[in-house]
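Example record

Each entry pairs one chain with its bound ligand, glutamic acid.
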Amino acid sequence: MSIRVRFAPSPTGMPHVGVIRTAIFDWLLARHHNGKFVLRIEDTDRSRYVEGAVDNIIGALKWLGMDIDEGPSAGGDYGPYYQSERLPLYYRYVKYLIDEGRAYWCNCTPERLDKIRKEQQAKKMPVGYDNKCWNLGLNGEPGDGVHVLRFAIPPGMTTTFHDELRGDITVDNDELDDFVLLKRDGFPTYHFASCIDDHHMAISHVFRGEEWLSSAPKHKLLYDALGIEPPKFVHVPVILGPDRKKLSKRHGAANVLEYKQMGYLPEAIFNFLALIGWNPGTEDEILSKEQLAELFTVERINTSAGIFDIDKLNWMNGEYIRAMPLESLVERLRPAMSEWGWIDDGFEPWGKEYVAGVCALMQERLKTLVEMREKAFFFFEEFESYDPKGAKKAFKGDDIIDRLSAAREKLEKTEWTVVGIEAAIRETAEKFGVGAGKIIHPIRLAVSGISAGPGLFEMLHILGRKKVIARIDKAIESL
Ligand code: GLU
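Structure tokens for the complex follow.
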């Protein structure tokens, strides 16, 4: 059997991490089996359609390096890949289902449906359609604005469907209501369109959110009525915050593209999301897309909720930054550095060597790319003030000016190498009979304005003697 997996988002907003995690499972299964990763846009709910949402979905997949084998932008033999362009296909099944007694037109008004729902709720009964129009033989037309088409659930029976993780699940048909296949506007519901499309697109596996589990028996009944074999279903668990509450801003952004803005690397996001709700069965968690694809199996998807832990993502992103060749890090940081006004397109006014030197020094210390701005600004910008908390500690003592001046004097004369700089600082400390920290911290604050950063000697070396001396002078003046 050829493996064809579809990612079927609705273009109703920004690409949510949960939705993209499902897409990652789709992609991994497809790549594991050398199968196809298909993108299908489920745009039949016209009231929820958001302009630009499709571009954002495709943009997110692209950013994450997930190549699409078939879809709106990629083409393919099973298109069109927008459901809104597939209406004639859905309509082909309408007559068949009506003739078979498995679907019927219903002209109940939204007001009536609302009324019966409220009555059912008041009586604490299960809510659902009361089958009023069943057997009335109403004549409707798709999109006539009056009728919906409903599926006729066979009463008094049970339905068993299979979930790849949970096994067989049986429900009583009487718990299911005659759900809508076509809406008044002539567009199909998710249930109708997705079943037909999964069949017509020869989909072998469907990964979808757990919230669809309760609809799965309806789909099984629909497949049976249409006489078609369902794909394999895998209902994937939701993603929660570490407090086990619904994922929200408090836990980190829910929109994948925001992570791009926040300076995360796509390979880290992909790795991180792939491990939410799926266990690779390895000790090592840092895994490339190719490794993940090789390891991916449905059986190791969990049935319990996955946890989105931003601390883990930060750790992982830092690991990816550290593992990156310096040249790549420079290239990744380049657009941001030019946006911050640090460099132009040709690394000027600093030159590539200087910029690369700074990146090398910062590589160990960055968790995200944008952190560079707050942690390394002093390599590229002058600053007017010193971190007040740091200043309280580092710029204190009656002899602070003496210590800074003595260090300045040594730094002015020492050989401008990391070793030479270190010697100058240590000799100054000895001269004052104090620990090296008493010189290192004030100098750090004087030259960077902040109290934390890369190794001081390397940092001074890159900044250059002229700038270091000038900044120490400025600090002395401010004291
Ligand atoms: N369009 C559905 C959604 O966005 C897709 C569910 C599925 O993958 O079948 O929830």
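The longest strand covers residues 158-163.
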